[in-house]
Design a protein that fits this description.
Elements: H1 29-38, H2 44-50, E1 75-79, E2 94-96, H3 101-109, E3 113-117, H4 128-144, E4 149-152, H5 163-182, E5 187-193, H6 206-212, E6 215-219, H7 239-251, E7 259-264, E8 267-271, E9 301-303, H8 305-313, E10 323-325, E11 330-336, E12 342-347, H9 350-362, E13 367-371, H10 383-390, H11 407-418, H12 421-424
Parallel strand pairs: 1-2, 1-13, 2-3, 3-4, 4-5, 5-6, 6-7, 7-13
Antiparallel strand pairs: 8-9, 8-12, 10-11, 11-12
């Protein structure tokens, strides 16, 4: 997941997660070392589990709502922002990266989990004692905020012979052991690249991570992070790579019931190279290297649903119709930017989204989910226009119009959520 709140720089691309909220779970490394010295005689298992107990009062209207969720339904996993009060909770099973107590109470009322973001200083990946201290601190924070687990989103390049490879898998294992002991039914999830074989230089111990974690969120988006062929704009999440990546994980022996297909609710906007025709099907892009590849999607910009709505609403700038590429199962269109250059945009709508969700159903996976972009947000007061243009396209939970009561708007919003029905059967 890139642009992030995820791989996140808030409005740039790739690596290291950051969020708008303060990191409660990360101790300064100097303090970690000091504590390690003071506690040299204390067992690591005691640090990670035994001392854990809730130290705060339940903020919900009922104590029952502060109990951890222990049931399991077909998984619909998402990353939330501020409009969670208007989500279709009949689908949502897990919400990540938000420890708002009101959200926790609401989610628990609907039988949905709320999980933290497991932020840590990578230096702990080569220090076992520091890892144990981090696990203890993170577990305590989860307990005190009545969380149901945590989500790991580490995306740095790791070589096959790096000690970080073992350290990351061990951190996940120790975290799972600690959370499972302290919080009944807790869920440890890990975000992994669309394929298991060194995508973006990430040679992680997939088998070890899969053994330790409860679920793997497979990020089948930003699949053009490394382009070794023609440097062209193309789909963010093509159907063939959805199928390929998932079957590769299954081929490694990862159980289907641990895999969650992660799909994007955002698109890519690529400036085409000078001289590109306004109606060109192929859009050559600037060569921007990334981790050894000569070309990457870093030549483009991730665009929220609201951004694209503005472009499509201003129909005078479009230079091609919105077109479905049936091979890639993604949509695209060209437009002329205000600086005069030609741009090509790729994205998914409700129909293409459902076709990929259906793959998860066919493979009998644990679930499906979406990654969101928080770089920009617009109130889609005229959403019905966009729904018509984009065949009721789906993007980001928080980019839908939850205010407008116009029947066409309400219907279009419902169609987005219903895309999950291809998996859940609801």
């Amino acid at each position: 997941m890139f642009c992030i709140v995820y791989f996140q720089h808030f409005c740039t691309t790739y690596t290291t997660p950051t969020t708008m909220k303060r990191n409660h779970s990360l101790l300064p490394f100097s303090l970690v070392i000091a504590l390690a010295a003071l506690n040299a005689q204390v067992s690591l298992s005691h640090l990670s589990v035994d001392a854990a107990s809730i130290t705060t009062a339940c903020p919900c209207k009922s104590e029952f709502l502060c109990k951890s969720i222990q049931t399991q339904r077909p998984e619909v996993f998402g990353f939330t922002g501020q409009f969670w009060k208007s989500y279709n909770w009949s689908y949502v099973t897990t919400v990540a990266w938000n420890d708002d107590p009101d959200l926790m109470c609401t989610a628990h009322e609907h039988g949905a989990r709320v999980v933290l973001q497991a932020q840590f200083d990578p230096v702990i990946l080569t220090n076992e004692t520091a890892r144990a201290l981090w696990v203890a601190n993170h577990t305590q924070y989860a307990l005190d905020h009545f969380m149901d687990g945590t989500n790991f989103d580490f995306e740095s390049a790791v070589a096959l012979d790096s000690p970080v490879r073992h350290g990351y898998a061990d951190l996940i294992k120790k975290t799972a052991e600690s959370f499972h002991a302290a919080i009944p039914g807790s869920q440890i999830s890990v975000d992994l690249a669309w394929g298991p074989y060194g995508i973006d230089g990430r040679f992680y111990d997939v088998e070890g991570i899969a053994d330790a974690a409860d679920l793997l969120f497979i990020m089948v988006y930003d699949t053009r992070s490394q382009i070794y062929g023609p440097c062209l704009a193309s789909a963010n999440s093509p159907l063939a790579l959805v199928q390929l990546g998932l079957t590769q994980y299954l081929g490694l022996g990862v159980p289907a019931n641990k895999l969650v297909l992660g799909l994007p609710w955002y698109g890519y906007d690529y400036p085409c190279e000078p001289g590109t025709a306004v109606d060109a099907i192929f859009c050559p892009i600037k060569q921007v290297p990334f981790r050894g590849a000569p070309c990457s999607d870093a030549a483009g910009v991730e665009r929220s649903y609201g951004d694209l709505f503005q472009v499509i609403r201003n129909g005078t700038s479009l230079t091609t119709p919105v077109t479905n590429n049936t091979l890639l199962e993604s949509l695209w269109f060209n437009y002329r930017h205000e600086d005069g250059s030609v741009h090509q945009v790729w994205f998914d709508d409700a129909s293409s989204f459902r076709s990929k969700v259906a793959v998860a159903k066919e493979l009998n996976l644990r679930g499906v989910g979406t990654y969101k972009l928080l770089c920009s947000r617009f109130v889609l007061a005229n959403f019905a226009i966009l729904a018509s243009a984009l065949r009721s396209g789906v993007w980001n939970f928080d980019l839908l119009d939850y205010v407008d009561t116009n029947p066409a708007t309400v219907s279009a919003m419902a169609a987005m959520w219903e895309g999950f029905g291809a998996f859940t059967g609801l």
